[in-house]
Amino acid sequence: MGQVNDNKIKHTNYCIATFAKQYKMSLLEAFNYLDRYGGLTFLDECYEAEHLLSIEDAIHDLVVICKNNGGELK
After folding, report:
1. Which helix (H) or strand (E) holds 55?
2. What letters, b where the CB count within 10 A reaches 16 and e where it falls short, cover 44-68?
3. Is the pLDDT higher at 5 or at 18?
4. How buried is 2 (Cβ within 10 angstroms: 0-12 exposed, 13-18 middle, 19+ buried)?
5. What's residue 5's pLDDT?
6. Who is most buried in 16, 29, 35, 51, counting CB within 10 A?
7. DSSP state of 53
8. How far is CA 48 from the centre of its chain?
9. Cα–Cα distance measured from residue 53 to residue 3, given in angstroms and rounded to the nearest whole number
10. How many CB atoms lie within 10 A of CB 26?
11. Is the pTM of this model over 0.85?
């Protein structure tokens, strides 16, 4: 069980960092945005499928989820 949690944390951190870089945000801004608009919950609940996708697909999915929850990106 510990290995899955470690991998989930690493995957989530990688997604946050990549999202921040792509949208020119700080890590804290990206974390807060993803938290506010459901992206972090999505990564947690859908880890089993999402970690098998490319990082580009994962970021796309985060954008869609956050947009559906009221988030808007510039």
Report:
1. helix 55-68
2. eeebeebbeeeeeebbebbbebbee
3. 18
4. exposed
5. 87
6. 16
7. S
8. 14
9. 19
10. 9
11. yes
**Each residue's pLDDT tens digit, 8-66:** 999 999 999 999 999 999 999 999 999 999 999 999 999 999 999 999 999 999 999 99
Calpha distance 72→74 (Å, rounded): 7
Residue type, 10: K
Please tell me what DSSP assigns to residue 23. T
Q: How far is CA 26 from CA 17, 19, 22, 33, 50, in A?
A: 9, 10, 10, 11, 23
The sign one gets for the Cα dihedral 50, 53, 55, 59 is negative
Count CB-CB contacts under 10 A for residue 20.
Answer: 18
